[in-house]
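Much of our argument rests on the idea that a fold can be written as discrete symbols. In the encoding step, the backbone of a single protein was reduced to a row of integers, each denoting a local shape. This step matters because it turns folding into a mapping between discrete strings. For completeness, the protein is quoted in full, as a sequence line and a line of structure tokens:
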Amino acid sequence: MKLNILLLAAPLALLVGCSKNPAENVPAAQVESATNATAEAKTGGAPGGSTRSFAFGTNGSSIEFVGSKVTGKHAGGFRNFAGELSIVNGRVADTGNKVVIDTTSLWSDSGRLTGHLKSPDFFDTAKFPTATFTTTSVQQNTTNWTVTGNLTLHGMTKQIAFPADIQVSDDTATTFAQFFLNRFDFEMKYPGKADDLIRQEVVLRLKINAKPGRADFQPLEKPAQTAGL
């Protein structure tokens, strides 16, 4: 009888200890081979339409993520990034939109985890100090927008597509997006401990509050030019 109780208790303890996957309630980004945006790519506005640049950074905007494992989850993000949106005739254009992230500015809710995420097991920020995203298409659908573009992360460039809520006015352009990426698509394959495996799905949360102006990318892109691979 005692043995039967022990056999039942083991799987029950495992179930109690399992945390919910944060990616279950958010859409997945579609990931494919990278594409090139051509000079003939649509801008989203009528020919001859006016083009304005809106810039954003860490003041009023955020780029955050949530990763999880069997026993829990951790939040993190980046403290240093800059971006620019191209607005044509009152909407975000297909091309001309860019964000550059200083991956060495990564933070998390655990100091020990922050160091591990910066290591070669994950982002390898010493080798790949910069991540970039440039759009190739921004298309409206019935409920929101679909943003497609090339993401360079961990030394790899992939095309990703994700849903976003986009609002544009005369003096502000805002974007909110929440979706998950599979870290294995970018060769971040550290598994975690055998009894506490790290999930492949990582939730990204983007909050952009852009104002008229131009972004200064040079301070962020310099490390990528001088880093030895």
Summary: Residues 5-16, 38-43, 225-229 have pLDDT under 50 and may be disordered. The CA atoms of residues 122 and 188 lie 5 Å apart.
